[in-house]
Amino acid sequence: MYRSIALFVISVASFFSATAQSRQAAAGPTDAVSRPKLVVGIVIDQMRWDYLYRYYDRYGGGGFKRLIKEGFTCENTMINYLPSYTAVGHTCIFTGSVPAISGISSNNWTEQLSGQTVYCTEDSTVRAVGANTNGGKMSPRNLLVSTVTDELRLATNYQSRVVGVSLKDRASILPAGHTANAAFWFDDGSGSFITSTYYMQQLPGWVEKYNIGHPAEKLVAHGWNTLYPIETYHSSDSDDQLYEGRFPGETSSSFPHKIDEVYKQQKGSLRATPFGNSLTLDFARMVVQGYRLGRGKAPDFLTINCASTDYVGHMYGPNSIEAEDTYLRLDRDLAAFFQFLDAKVGKGQYLVFLSADHGAAHAIGYSQEHGIPADYWGPGGLVDSLNKILAARFGIENLVRSGMNYQINFDMGKIYGYRLDFDAIKKKTVEYCQQQPGITYAVDMARIGEAPIPEPIKTMIINGYNFKRSGAVQLVLNAGWFEAEGKTGTTHGSWNPYDTHIPLLFMGWGIRHGSTNAVVNMTDIAPTIASLLHIQMPSGCIGRPILAVTER
Ligand SMILES: [Zn+2]
What we know:
Blueprint: H1 2-27, E1 38-44, H2 51-54, H3 64-70, E2 72-78, H4 86-95, H5 99-102, E3 108-110, E4 117-119, E5 128-129, H6 148-155, E6 162-165, H7 169-176, E7 182-187, E8 192-196, H8 205-212, H9 215-220, H10 259-265, H11 275-290, E9 300-306, H12 308-316, H13 321-346, E10 350-355, H14 364-369, E11 375-377, H15 380-394, E12 400-404, E13 407-410, H16 412-417, H17 422-434, E14 439-444, H18 457-464, E15 473-477, E16 481-483, H19 497-500, E17 501-502, E18 504-508, E19 514-521, H20 525-533, H21 547-550
Parallel strand pairs: 1-9, 1-10, 2-19, 6-7, 6-9, 11-16
Antiparallel strand pairs: 2-17, 2-18, 3-4, 5-8, 7-8, 10-18, 12-13, 13-15, 14-15
Helix pairs in contact: 4-7, 11-13, 12-13, 15-17
């Protein structure tokens, strides 16, 4: 009797609770996952971490200073692979992965078996949309892992919209991932933003309209002079330096740069001016409006790369007035962009993070002038000598194909075809390279575990070694040395802090104010974003969430 009453009570109770549940289901969930309306990932190409403070006093309140004062800054964020090049950096930030796994081993690499040179985002199966150019035969197909932007699309059943924007194809395509709604980049021939048939068959009407307005031409119309009186640029070297590059037709490297005239001959010249960043952020505003980003049910993701900082850096080096002026103007452009997001999406409703794909060395001319060890290096002579030595020992000509990305690429067809002793070839190569001036280490990638190389270089080499897409011997140059063709400007690609210590700042939705000096890695950015969004980490992610950012 008691048992049947008890059963009756239980069944009545479960009837009421089931009714309550179905009522709740009809009304929709009352306790939904908390996510921002929009995520904006901004990558400043070639931005060394120290630029935050080198120009700090001259920044306004709404750009870099706003990120530092309102947001959270990870002061010691390090790239943890080699080589520190553009495509790899953008890939790592948005995948949490490294060349060994992501497949993006450099901007260009040699397929080890075929010897074919591949550009990171080339894809002959697609074509340009918006211009008649080979520069549109691009897609993310060479990327072997998912991005955090892909994971957001997967997590929300494709309700989230993802768009990439950059002057550079690779810096737009790789962050936006495989499932992006769109990626746009700048076409030098037409001076307009284009995409490829990977994403769409025709540009949206508002992009076509934007291009017809010739926005780039308007931005360069007054040439490039300094934003403030030139004598106030105390953070930089004096203007006319032999280590600075020149635009075509210029007789000196000094301000003012008649970029309005240069642009008429060469639209790509826009890239090496601060106006390339202005154009990118202006177009990003159009994208937010055109795709109604931040207005849907699920969070959207916009990836932006400001690439002009890289082109300016390559041409003039970090100690130039041109570099300083570019950052001061970028700071203003960022401030305006954040204000736009405040108005369109709502302050505190969007999550923004800012980082860099790599840093840069001081220009060699500048370093040498100040007694700091630095020098030029080229692989050409080394490859010729190696081929002579290896031919004498193994009886086969041209066993070395190239010295790309600070790696020695061997002709694997010959090595397998003639059944040569590859270990012996690599041993001879390492012995010879180690003796050359400017080379600190040469190491057989397959034997890196037993090589007497200190951390973090050892792990960076392991992370950077993709068996199919990297040369089999890695070279590490002396600090301050880098591969260069001319004696002007600078570059990046090495393990050293000047190339690998990058800014990392978060601001907005879910971010408290603060900073940490703990060392974190570039591979930690994607899992941190994934944690904040409550979505899965990307498929090749080896990083860990930065707890100082994610914990409340
Ligand atoms: Zn670069």
